[in-house]
């Protein structure tokens, strides 16, 4: 087997079929349509049209033109437009996939991760009524302490600071090793 086939087999092995099914179900719910069951997940997404339509549902008008025909560069342009739009929508750059990951089917797992990141980002947009995908992101929980509380915290010496009253790491106090000399 060639090296390229070995790499592809390893990449396919990392794919999570359940996550892909969940992402596709979310896409279907957002668009209100279904896709043929015999069509592969990556083939549904490959030309970027479905992803662009999803983005326009989440944020109307975010992608002005979706290419439906033309060569591979037009289809890759759809994917690029999708990635640009999700960045503006709030998906962090570290969660985005590269165009080749999808179009050339190099890393479909990364594509699924990006779809989940987009689904999580929808929680932050109150204008979106749902459905959502993935867990709700944590919200900031700012805590304000009084000066007395801060001063009390500075006066306390934790065990990490070295004040363990003679105990060793196991918590035993005063235990010593016995060294027995041979005769």
From TrEMBL:
Annotated GO CC locations: actin cytoskeleton
Organism: Meganyctiphanes norvegica
Name of this protein: Calponin-homology (CH) domain-containing protein
One Gene Ontology molecular-function label: actin filament binding
PANTHER family linked: CALPONIN, MUSCLE-SPECIFIC PROTEIN 20
Domain Calponin-homology (CH), chain residue ranges per copy: 17-122
Family: Belongs to the calponin family.
InterPro entries: Calponin-like, Calponin_repeat, CH_dom, CH_dom_sf, SM22_calponin
Biological processes, Gene Ontology terms: actin filament organization
Domain of life: Eukaryota
